Amino acid sequence: MSQHKYTLNRRQLLKSGAVLGGGALFTPALSPLACAQAMAEGKIIITAAHWGPLAVTMKDGKILKSEPAIEDLGDNPLQTVVADQVYNKVRISQPMIRKGFLDNLDNITQPDGKRGDDAFIPISWDKAYDIIEKQLRRIYASYGASGIFAGSYGWRSSGVLHKAFTLMQRFLNLTGGYVGHLGDYSTGAAQVIMPHVLGTIEVYEQQTSWDVVLKDSKIVVLWGANIYNSSQIAWASSDGQARLHLKKLKESGIKVFNIDPTWTETADYLGHDRCEWVPINPGTDVAFMLGICHELIRQNWHDADFLKKYTVGFEQVRAYIMGEEDGEAKTPEWAAKLSGISADKIRELARLFHENRTMIMSGWGIQRQHHGEQAHWMTVTLAAILGQIGLPGGGFGLSYHYSNGGAPTRRAGVLPNIGNTASGGSTSDWLDTGASQLSIPVARISDALHNPGGEYAYNGQTRTFPHIRMIWWCGGNPYHHHQDLNRLRAGWQKPEIIIVQDPYWTATAKHADIVLPATTSYERNDLTMTGDYSNMHIVPMKKLVEPQGEAKNDYDIFHDLAKRFGVDAAYSEGKNEMQWLKAFYDEAQQSARQQRIAMPLFQQFWEENKVYENPRDPKADAYVRYADFRADPVLNPLGTPSGKIELYSKTIEAMHYDDCRAHASWLPPVEYLGNAPAEYPLQLVTPHSHYRLHSQLNQTSLREQYAVANREPLWIHPEDVAARDIKDGDLVRVYNGRGQVLAGAGRIYNSSATATKKTSISDTAKNIKTLQETENGCLPSYYAH
Ligand SMILES: Nc1nc2c(c(=O)[nH]1)N[C@H]1C(S)=C(S)[C@@H](COP(=O)(O)OP(=O)(O)OC[C@H]3O[C@@H](n4cnc5c(=O)[nH]c(N)nc54)[C@H](O)[C@@H]3O)O[C@H]1N2
Ligand SMILES: Nc1nc2c(c(=O)[nH]1)N[C@H]1C(S)=C(S)[C@@H](COP(=O)(O)OP(=O)(O)OC[C@H]3O[C@@H](n4cnc5c(=O)[nH]c(N)nc54)[C@H](O)[C@@H]3O)O[C@H]1N2
Ligand SMILES: [Mo]
């Protein structure tokens, strides 16, 4: 993702024209007091992770403790457990091979069906390399690149050099190619629909600056956006700015709505005085927004001038909303039945949004669903009808909750990354992975394994699933992140060989044939920036300790293998670890110099062991998304066919899809409150955890802070609890027809504020059945090996 963002930021920097003078600052790693304290205890080393720059105190060569290395308001518990990550009983200590696979080595075209149930035996690195080399050559000779899936989605660790799956793909691009992935789990639906509507993927773009929001917005809508929680991390490294902005929001006079099935950590932080809960039924946001739009149009509150000048297709949308298209008017009463929010509240929100400068901050949970495309298309449609897009503090933002979006972009020399092709070429960091003809949409992995050669529709194209005979996963955990794991597990038995590279015995590693132990980011040297949008800091990621056990860096694993294939020169470009880092840093430093920002030379930077902060840019502080387009839509057209916001898309019309019409529309999800059968009356929502990054850190002591009955906490409404005789702290079985998981009943809502609510979480927790078999990071078997 960051590559997109860095590219964007570079473009913005170029666009920003006149360059101010002035140098950048070194942030002292810790406050003087904390610093003195830490120095007395031992040496401090600076590193970083997705959850921010870290100051790590060492003692006798061991990691003692870790703390934030920059000011980070509020607690970010993720920053405290570096030692637990490194010294951990679920680390993989040496290369391992599955017993049945080893026994069957001469006949592995016929897999034995025992993945996930078999024992592992240790082998040497050389033996592991021998087997991998032989099998990779055989697979290429028999099936070509389409036989190897190396899409390997996942969040790996931060760093511009030690990028797990990028390095794997770099190696495989030199040996013959692979099947990659399209899109991601985060925004899979939005990033396909948004280019048709706005001409950009929109989800990974800088937002209207928080400074502007705090000054000009009268209403902020958290639409399934849990900023306090989800901004603890970034794809590169968190700059911690969201907490600062939330604090200011709490202190401001701005009215906040939390449109969410849950009373989130963010809502809780803002408090009931500042923030009103609109506890919507999951999966019904489009209906709810249509109800608001109906009221806006009925009252003649829609902004006809804006719609005419900046959008196409309002007439079709209007006809649909008013019921002229399908005979069903999308009235507030109609929307209330589906969403669980009263028609009066819907009318009130329509009036408030119309009368006040309103910023809709949308998270991504609303689109990580069946028909998820509609949710963000409808969000843009609603914002267009309100007519505030491009005005200070108005419109919508799809990334305020992520990577501290809205923290203004700094003037900076931006660090490049190692690419998945050698010597320049594509340095795509996240989305497509270099073999686009063969790539499959990322969440199609089960479908691909089950239907080799099968056809599927994707964004107007008919594509064909490859015949995957080998899987190599490096830096991700599909047994954590994929849906319907029983189905994945069945498909997973089909390939001939599966290699997994990870520091830990994840559920995925346990389903491999060959398991290779990777280092954590604390066992190698690297660099990162903070703030995928802000480019706020450059941080040295210094090696804290030697690789644990027989673990090796992913970089070195693929370098060793590259030698066996005679491609090591192209792989390494003749550079070792520190030479790579110096080259990346030098490039950033040169670009900084052109902007008259003084960065120290690499050696000094590295030895100083400090976080480097980039200077502010007054222009960026005042940034308003779509202001240029609003000022002059002819000179600054959008990248859509019409150059305008497409509320109706002729491109999509021409696709003739039943499940995506040419304008945003209400398509009932296959499973939701509205069609729940009696035996599965509850709906499970699986938001991202405050205490983990997906499955990462699940194996640390953080778990002790939040686990209930030693399981992931399950929040249930008192009404649902009463009907089931569940007490706080009970171990509960959560199940449906597809699978089951154990959880601990915790944070049972019983505060007076929620208990008195009629439309409370009970309405969402009741009568709905969707369950994804592992909640984020539940990993029922993580500890069981
Ligand atoms: N039910 C449900 N499922 C979801 C979601 C949800 O909201 N609900 N969210 C989805 C989303 S948005 C996402 S992004 C995905 C996340 O899914 P993943 O990105 O797969 O989850 P992580 O736990 O971050 O997995 C990263 C893995 O990389 C390993 N790793 C870390 N550093 C290194 C390294 O240097 N080298 C190697 N080789 N390995 C390393 C970690 O140990 C871990 O096993 O989950 C998706 N799945
Ligand atoms: N601490 C922490 N931060 C993270 C992550 C993490 O694992 N831990 N993961 C990171 C990643 S990779 C991503 S993609 C982002 C994810 O960012 P998001 O996708 O925005 O995060 P979620 O927590 O899945 O969902 C946000 C909110 O949407 C609500 N929600 C769910 N369904 C619905 C619905 O149908 N309607 C409405 N209105 N609301 C709904 C949830 O209750 C939740 O409060 O977070 C990132 N930040
Ligand atoms: Mo994600």
Radius of gyration (CA) equals 26 Å
Q: Enumerate the distinct ligands.
A: ligand MGD, molybdenum atom
Main β-sheet, spatial strand arrangement: 6-5-20-19-18-7
Any guess at the CATH architecture of the largest domain? 3-Layer(aba) Sandwich
Helix fraction?
25-40%
Q: At the fourth CATH level, what is the homologous superfamily of the largest domain?
A: Dimethylsulfoxide Reductase, domain 2
Number-wise, the strands total 27
Q: Count helical runs.
A: 31
Kindly state the mean pLDDT as a whole number?
88
| CATH fold category name of the largest domain | Dimethylsulfoxide Reductase, domain 2
Which percent range describes the beta-strand content?
5-15%
Q: Helix/strand-derived class?
A: alpha/beta
**Large-scale geometry:** globular
Tell me the number of structural domains: 3
Summarize the structure.
The chain is of the alpha/beta class and 785 residues long. It has 31 helices and 27 strands.
Could you explain the architecture of this structure?
Residues 682-745 form the Molybdopterin dinucleotide-binding domain. Mo-bis(molybdopterin guanine dinucleotide) binds at residues 155, 368, 477, 481, 524, 554. The chain is an alpha/beta fold. The chain has three domains: 96-183 and 414-509 and 545-578, 3-Layer(aba) Sandwich (Rossmann fold); 189-409 and 623-654, 3-Layer(aba) Sandwich (Dimethylsulfoxide Reductase, domain 2), CATH 3.40.228.10; 671-753 and 774-784, Barwin-like endoglucanases (Beta Barrel). Helix content is 34%, strand content 14%. Strands 6-5-20-19-18-7 form a six-stranded mixed β-sheet. Helix 11 (265-274) links the parallel strand 10 (255-259) and strand 11 (275-278). Helix 6 packs parallel to helix 21 (554-564), helix 12 (285-298) packs antiparallel against helix 15 and helix 12 (285-298) crosses helix 16 (343-355). The protein is globular. It starts with a helix and ends in a 20-residue tail after the last helix.
